[in-house]
Amino acid sequence: MRSVTAEEVIRDYLDALLEGNRRRAFAVVDRARGEGLDHRAIYLEVFQPALHEVGRLWQENRISVADEHLATAITQAAMARLYDDLFAHGAGGGPVLVAACVDSERHEVGLRMICDLLELEGWDTYFLGATTPLESLVSMVEARAPQAVALSASITPHLPRVRVTISALRERLGERTPLILAGGRAFLDDPELAARVGADLTARDAMEAADLLRERFPR
Amino acid sequence: MRTYAGTGLHASLRSFPGAVLELAPDATVLDSNGRLERKLEREVVGLSFTRVLDPDSRAKWDRLLALGGEAEAQVWELVLEGREFLATLSFALSRTEEDGRERLWLVEYPRDPRLEQLHEELSATNSELVNTKRELSKEKARLVRALEELERELRENEHLSQQLQQQNEEVEAQNEELMAMTEEMHASQDQLLMLNQQLERRTRELQVALSARNRFYAAMSHELRTPINAVMGYNDLLLTGVYGALGEKQELAVERSQSAARHLRALVDDVLDLSRIEIGRAELETETVDMQRLLEELVSLLRPLADGRGSPLSLVVRDTPCTVVTDARRVRQVVLNLLSNAIKFGKGNPIWVYCGRSRDGGVEVEVVDGGEGISEEDLARIFDEFVQLGADAIGTSSAGGTGLGLPIARRLAEFLGGRLDVSSTPGVGSTFRLSLPQVAPGSA
Amino acid sequence: MAPLAAAERATAFLLEEKEALAREITRRLYADMPELLERYGERGRAKCLQDMRYNLEHLAPAVELERPEMFGAYVRWLDGLLRAHGVATAEVVRTLELMEEVLDERLPADEAQAVRECVRAGLAVVREGGEGG
Predict the structure, then answer these.
(1) Which of these ranges, B93-107, B332-346, C49-63, has the smallest mean pLDDT?
(2) How far apart are CA B402 and CA B390, in angstroms?
(3) Taking the CA of residue B375 as centre, how many other CA atoms within 13 Å lie in the half-sphere pointing to its CB?
(4) C96 Cα to chain A: minimum distance (Å)
(5) Which CATH number fits the domain A96-216, given the four candidates 3.40.50.280, 3.30.200.20, 1.10.530.10, 3.40.640.10?
(6) Of A22, A94, B2, B233, which has the fewest CB atoms closer than 10 Å, so is most exposed?
(7) How distant is the Cα of C17 from the closest Cα of chain A, in angstroms?
(8) Which sign, positive or negative, has the C-alpha torsion B389, B394, B400, B401?
(9) Would you tell me how many other CB atoms lie within 10 Å of the CB of residue B219?
(10) Chain B contact for C132, CB < 8 A?
(11) For residue B315, is pLDDT > 60?
């Protein structure tokens, strides 16, 4: 039973982020957890909207790059604090996902959030993170033989790297190539770009990604 | 535009990379080193600095001034708002007093381009830390699950182990029992061996004794025959009047004597015969015997005796012809014995005599009575090798001899190549069966 | 190996010559609009050069994937951002015009055509919707 709404939490949380006050931010999250918000709710209704808002504020020049970096760093730390609990709740034994940002891409938070949410649904995710070298990614996919691969790009200049990465995967693995999901802000305006760069699927956010993959791989 | 030679900005301040502003206590900008954006400078020099601050920054500025001396040596971010320009600059505020005049100094901290890089590095490092934490948490959860699984297995194993232990103990106990039983068995075996040996010894002793007895009997019967023959001879002589005519009383006496002598001789003959049989020296005189006729004769011979006892005798011949090659005299001896026993122990119930062919071409004769029957234990002993010379004989008859015991009858049957068996239902009756082969052994 | 398509060749050129191109376009912009130096000073010019690099980095994928509207979307975003910083749309317009000019000079006809389509998509965005300077 929730006695606190996500809206209240996110207001508090955002304030703490913009203050650069990590202790307060952690306290807000802890209180929300205590009031019954589960991991999925915290991710989709607090962290994700907060990061989007921070990005918007930066774009409108209301906050500086440093503010944005700090807010992101605090949110990442807040996520890290929940990891022991999150993975203890994971079911395990499900399909395998390998997720990576292409080698030019530094923005990894969004992709990591998708992986974390999928873990809650029983997926076994291997998160390779930002700027994953092409060869490392291909080798890892070959070694782990996942059911799906997720690639992320935040701006359009990274799209060519996504294309190269997907080609390399298909060339190395042929028939064994797993399902390829491409996403990130670079794909938001034009979802057809995903097919254009050779991917099988695209999603607009963590929830959509989780839904799509759940459909494809029912437990 | 104000010149910069103004009220005294030091030359070094003029070449400072960041903007330096000299302000009066009321925030009027008195002088600038020209590093502020040109447009801004036009807006500000000679006028209040607060004109170019955005509302938040204005409030911040007021707070700054209110702090007085404590405001020094800190870096403040102020957002400067021009009509077409918005910029965030970092300033340090300082106060001086010179010749009684208080001055505020705003010194801009130009952004070190390496700060950007540092931010990026820190971000990247932070991300890596979070990733590491993620992997560790995931691994930890996996280990916990594995440990739980292990614990579960261990508990199961323990349970199984306990079960095994129990079974082992049971097997142990059974083993011990087995061992004890085996020991007992061995002990019994030893005993048996010992008893066997004893038995063998006794049997040998017995055989020795039997042989001795038989030789004794043979010797004795010879010894006995001679005087008996002498007696009978003299009796005959007396009766034929060789020694003078005999008076009536004398004749009677001699006849009785002769009868007794005859009887005695028959006894001795039988004993001799028996010992011959026992030591295997007797001989069979075989001929083709019609069993039906033989049995009919015996039955009619004994019928009066049976009737006298109240036991009707019946003969049933199942197969005809019923012939074998055998020694008739011996056969008669056996059947006679069986019949007399049946009559004696029949309790007045009917007695049947059956005769039929057996499967191997021989003949079977059964004497069935309705007597007391014979118990299991006695069945085993009834043919025991203890010779009882006619102890149960019923009367005498010149045709059948003196009557022999069952052991004798069995020996005779075997002598004839057959066998004598008995079965009985205690309280109801008994059946004695004499089986004879088609041809007696040693026949021509 | 089959000869690369015009789009691929143009993209390669954009990325290889990014620095030289950025400098040339900036130089021409400041030559055209001297008030920029007045307003923003040297610091502003350095920032302008940096922005020019970004512009080219965003032009490249639109050319490679043959999606002029991709660059148009970028220009829309850029215009909004700059206006928030007090930079007039006219500056963006002029920047794009000079970009087209420079690339037209430096590229063979087919490659220039591939690039022109994308730049013009950006111009269309700021000419119609943006504020004039």
Answers:
(1) B93-107
(2) 6
(3) 2
(4) 18
(5) 3.40.50.280
(6) B233
(7) 15
(8) positive
(9) 12
(10) no
(11) yes
User: Does domain B11-111 bear CATH number 3.30.780.10?
Assistant: no
For residue B38, which residues of chain C lie inside 8 Å, CB to CB? 38-39, 41
Nearest-Cα residue of chain A relative to residue B134? A83
Instruction: Count the residues in chain A.
Output: 219
Query: Do A12 and A49 meet the contact criterion of CB atoms below 8 Å apart?
Result: no
Q: Is A87 on the interface with B (CB under 8 A)?
A: yes
Partners of chain A (3+ Cβ pairs below 8 A): B, C
Chain A residues with beta carbon closer than 8 angstroms to that of C53:
none
Q: In angstroms, rounded to a whole number, what is the distance separating the alpha carbons of residues A147 and A213?
A: 10
Which has more confidence, C19 or B408? C19
Q: What subunits make at least 3 CB pairs under 8 angstroms with C? A: A, B
What value does the mean pLDDT take over residues C31-38?
86
Give yes or no for B117 touching A (CB within 8 A).
Answer: no
CB atoms B130 and A88 under 8 Å: no
Let me know how long chain C is: 133
Q: In angstroms, what separates the C-alpha of B52 from chain A's closest C-alpha?
A: 17
**Superfamily of B284-436 according to CATH:** Histidine kinase-like ATPase, C-terminal domain (3.30.565.10)
Give per-residue pLDDT as tens, B172-224.
999 999 999 999 999 988 999 999 999 999 988 888 887 787 777 778 777 88
Read off the pLDDT band of B5 (50, 70, 90). very low
pTM above the 0.90 mark?
no
DSSP states of B162-217: HHHHHHHHHHHHHHHHHHHHHHHHHHHHHHHHHHHHHHHHHHHHHHHHHHHHHHHH
Q: Which chains would you list as touching B if contact means 3+ CB atom pairs under 8 Å? A: A, C
Section C42-52 average pLDDT: 86
Q: Name which of B116, B137, B145 is nearest A83 (Cβ-Cβ).
A: B137
Report the distance separating Cα C115 and Cα C5, nearest Å: 13
Q: Return mean pLDDT, chain A.
A: 91
